[in-house]
Amino acid sequence: MNTRVVPAVDLGHQYADDLPELALPWQAAEVPEPRPLVLNDALASDLGLDPDWLRTADGVGLLTGTRVPEGATPVAQAYAGHQFGGYSPRLGDGRALLLGELGDGEGRLRDLHLKGSGRTPFSRGGDGYAAVGPMLREYVISEAMHALGIPTTRSLAVVATGREVHREVVLPGAVLARVASSHLRVGTFQYARATDDLDLLRRLADHAIARHHPEAADAEQPHLALFEAVVAAQASLVAQWMLVGFVHGVMNTDNMTISGETIDYGPCAFIDAFDPATVFSSIDTGGRYAYGNQPVVAEWNLARFAEALLPLLADEQDDAVALAVASLEKFRDLYSDAWKAGMHAKLGLPEGLADAVTSALVADLVTLMRDNHVDHTSFFRGLGDAARGDAAPARGLVLDLAAYDAWAERWLALSPDAAAMDRVNPAYVPRNHLVEEALAAGTDGDLAPLNQLLDVLSQPYDVRPGQERFAEPAPESFGTGYQTFCGT
Ligand code: AMP
Ligand code: MG
Q1: Nearest to 173 by CA among 254, 114, 250
Q2: Ligand 1 center to residue 95 CA distance, Å?
Q3: Stretch 140-167: mean pLDDT, rounded?
Q4: Quick check: 196 pLDDT over 80?
Q5: Helix or strand run (H / E) with residue 305
Q6: Which atom of ligand 1 is nearest to the CA of 252?
Q7: Which residue out of 114, 167, 488 has the highest number of ligand 1 atoms within 8 Å of its CB and is therefore the one to mutate?
Q8: Is 351 helix (H, G, I), strand (E, B) or coil?
Q9: pLDDT for the residue 108
Q10: Residues acting as catalytic residues
Q11: Average pLDDT, whole number, for the chain?
Q12: Given the CA of residue 129, which atom of ligand 1 is nearest to it?
């Protein structure tokens, strides 16, 4: 083993201590030629890690798992999951490791986790590795989501390994170091439930409460309160995805967190032309995870979470089911309230409007956007200009001008607040053609386009003169029918 000891970092192992049945001690694969491609200095500092030290051999060793601090216990985490509706009893970290936990600036535990760090007992047929392109993709999109204010895992670094990774073609390998408030998934509970070990399930639920939803501990029924807290967190999260045009692409139950953070950026992408049926992932042929299906899928996944929790909710199964159903029923209102409040803000509407007025205005807007396939990001940003008296940017995206004019007249009569709109309608999102361009260059060793893109996306609400191309829809040469691929 090449694992040497890094003394500078204090990595906790609370997950491994609390839940040894779900944590297989394991080591990262050797890295032939480590080369950091991108490193998140601000995030490192938040975590008490010196960015300069992270660039040393010891630091890069930590970021690839090849030199871990004394006392750390890297583990592969066990989980199950429904993938495209079919249950897999044993997934787990097949190419990932939890190195341990760090405290952030606010005293919360944050997982330091690697992706692409080699085979584990959960690898099944996989090689345990990851390629540079998909890891840079997770870095860009997760950091963009964070800057947009959407709960997400963060990316600390991507280190090229110097190893060839064999997919359809040979690709350069990389390890992503990511940070999350935890890696507990709906699939983690499904795995624990399937062991029939009630004590394990209870310890897992209590670990989740302590880490993510501490207020549930004081509830009359803490485990039911945990369920309701996750229902609320996911309703809010998915509403935020919808409001910004994000398509996760692979909402399997193993890719849904208990914390309410977005996780596992694989074939995800932002919509350009507004269409609820939008699917990017090459393997999602049935459109199960289409843009417009995401709220329904989230509710389906939460039902699977409820099933896993049933033995903790009541002694009699019928009682437990009744409780779970009543709690899950809250999802729809929570989701639609969050979405409506978000649309209200995106349209800069004043407080105190009659619900019927807002609802009709929003419903007609959605129809207008869908019928005209308008660019989602540019259109909402352009409505801010329209609120200031310059109709051209938004109106220019609509084919049916009469329909736009009729809708805009009703909306403008409500005196929308343009400045408030600019704070919630991003000018910049990681548009597909920009991401592809940056990843292609990065894979070829030119990191300048990636760094420039990261810079613009770090302040998505602030228009920067001279950076217009980052706000524009894809050129026609990019074509339609953009496809993304799972990061395997
Ligand atoms: P994902 O699509 O990344 O959410 O992964 C789904 C499951 O497949 C997880 O259990 C992963 O650990 C596993 N997996 C994905 N890619 C690989 C790989 N290259 N080697 C081993 N396991 C993998
Ligand atoms: Mg996953």
Answers
A1: 114
A2: 6
A3: 98
A4: yes
A5: helix 294-313
A6: 4
A7: 488
A8: coil
A9: 86
A10: 254
A11: 96
A12: 19
Length of the chain: 488
* Beta-carbon-side half-sphere exposure of residue 95 (alpha carbons within 13 Å): 19
Q: Which two tokens stand for residue 310?
A: 């049933």
Angle at 250 between CA 245 and CA 251, to 5 degrees: 85
In order of 54, 269, 287, the CA distances from 247 in angstroms are 33, 5, 11
215 and 225 in contact (C-beta within 8 Å)? yes
Instruction: Report, as an integer, the average pLDDT of 449-455.
Output: 98
Count the Cβ atoms, other than its own, within 10 Å of residue 433.
17
Task: Say whether pLDDT at 161 is over 50.
Answer: yes
Q: Which residues contact 427 (CB under 8 A, 6 or more apart)?
A: 377, 381, 460, 461, 462, 463, 471
Alpha helices in 388-447 (DSSP H): 392-395, 401-412, 418-422, 432-443
- How far, in Å, from the CA of 6 to the mean position of ligand 1? 28
Cα-trace Rg, the chain? 23
Q: Are 470 and 455 in contact (CB under 8 A)?
A: no
Which tens digit of pLDDT belongs to each residue from 277-293? 999 999 999 999 999 99
Sorted by where each begins, the domain ranges of the chain are: 14-180, 186-340
pLDDT in tens, 329-384: 999 999 999 999 999 999 999 999 999 999 999 999 999 999 999 999 999 999 99
Task: Please state, in angstroms and as integers, the Cα–Cα distance from residue 310 to each residue in 78, 189, 315, 323, following that order.
Answer: 20, 11, 9, 9
pLDDT at 7 over 80: no
pLDDT, one tens digit per residue, over 414-431 is 999 999 999 999 999 999
Establish whether residue 138 lines the binding site of ligand 1, counting it when its CB lies within 6 angstroms of any ligand atom. Answer: no
CB of 126 closer than 6 angstroms to any ligand 1 atom: yes
